[in-house]
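User: My collaborator sent over this chain with a note saying "see what the structure looks like." That's all I know about it. Can you take a look?
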Amino acid sequence: MKVKVNVPKQLEKELTKKRPGKINMSTVCDPYQPIEAHYNLTRACLEVFAKFRMISEYFPVSILTKSPLILRDVKIIKQIPSVEVGFTISTDDEKILRLFEPHSPTLKSRLRALKNLKEAGIRTYVLVAPALPMNPRRLAEMIKGLADNVYVDCLNYSWKVKHIYHRAKLDKYLGESFCWHVKQVLKQQNEVH
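Assistant: Without extra context I'll predict from the sequence alone. Here is the result:
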């Protein structure tokens, strides 16, 4: 594994050259993986955004994670003018979460971290992606008041995980109609996109 430890310095150089636009940390790979506790690269990048407050007003920052490690950086995040933090919460059921994300932070720890961020005055959102088997009313209740926005995305490439659904007798959650139902229920209690 190669860790790009020069990322914060590179970011500082590039930030003054780029045209304004949104910075997403991160849509593909969680910026708060366990190794972040050792290398502190995400934290260092956030410090760059905080240092260049004037510039960072033109670069809204969106941080998406599953990890409560983000709470370590609340003071820095609050210094960034245009920032939001999202948590991926794909189900209301810890057993389902363990089935699909066996090594990820618990649902309870994500909700607690989301609550702490909201109480710190940071703009928050929840990403329900993919919409895993759940009771959407229960999830809506769990996240009520914790997020400024909720985004829902259906399960893509269902054929890749169909065997997991079948083995766990969860086939009824595979169709588009389930995802549509989740969106409708969450829309009633939250601003859903």
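A starting point for your reply to your collaborator: Residues 154 and 180 are 8 Å apart (CA to CA).
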